[in-house]
Amino acid sequence: TESAGFCQVASAKRGEHRLISVVIGTASEFQRASESQRLLNHGFQDFEALPLYGKNQPITSVQLWKGTEKKVKAGFRDGLTITIPQGMRAQLKATIETQRPLLAPLSAGQRIGTLRFTLNGKPYLELPLVTLEAVPLANVFSRGVDSIRMLFDWLVVGQIIAVNPAAAVRGPKHSVKRGKTPTLSAAEARVLLDSI
Q1: Is it the case that residue 49 has pLDDT exceeding 80?
Q2: Selection from 39, 52, 34, 43 nearest residue 14 by Cα
Q3: At 189, is the pLDDT very low, low, confident or very high (cuts 50, 70, 90)?
Q4: What distance lies between CA 30 and its chain's CA centroid?
Q5: 3-state secondary structure the chain
Q6: Is the pLDDT of residue 165 over 80?
Q7: How far is residue 35 from each of residues 13, 17, 22, 118, measured CA to CA in Å?
Q8: Which pTM does this prediction carry?
Q9: C-alpha span between 103 and 57 (Å, rounded)
């Protein structure tokens, strides 16, 4: 519209760093183009893209109750790259907050916490932390053992007792061992049996 002036949305890429500029309300086409160029140059010169985590790379493992696994890997499904002002890497700090207690079943990609960044001591960015794998519900015996361990854990956290006596108790573990012996086809098995 006439009252909005000359507007432009522009995008530029240098290496793997892509920026988008939005200019609204300039007086002329020339001013619109020069302001957009100035904004993009400012972004490329004064900010840096910082790749932190790769796609499906675990950031942390979180204790899990009543599942077939005792811990679940958490991270980002698509990786994480953030943009910060040049020279501020040392001031970037991260903290992880997760749901407690975390109970199975969990599906892959389910949100279980938050990754919070501060820059120079001030809040900068909050991102959801998700599970990188699905964890089904454990069998009834394992869930019962976990319920007892959770009760004692709650008593320790509430400072009702000093030590969790059930901490060393573990439920049954199911594992499948796969050997290195090659599988023979029917023809190979026939040749082997005929040679005996």
Answers
A1: yes
A2: 43
A3: confident
A4: 44
A5: CCCCCEEEEEEEEECCEEEEEEEEEECCHHHHHHHHHHHHHHHHHHEEEEEEECCCCEEEEEECECECCCEEEEECCCCEEEEEECCCHHHEEEEEEECCCCECCECCCCEEEEEEEEECCEEEEEEEEEECCCECECCHHHHHHHHHHHHHHHHHHCCCCCCCCCCCCCCCCCCCCCCCCCCCCHHHHHHHHHHC
A6: no
A7: 17, 20, 9, 30
A8: 0.65
A9: 22
Please give the single-letter amino acid code of residue 73.
K
Residue type for 114, please?
T
Residue whose tokens read 């309300």: 25
Q: With beta carbons less than 8 A apart as the criterion, state whether 56 and 77 touch.
A: yes
Q: Give the pLDDT confidence of 100-123 residue by residue, as tens digits.
A: 889 999 999 999 999 999 998 899
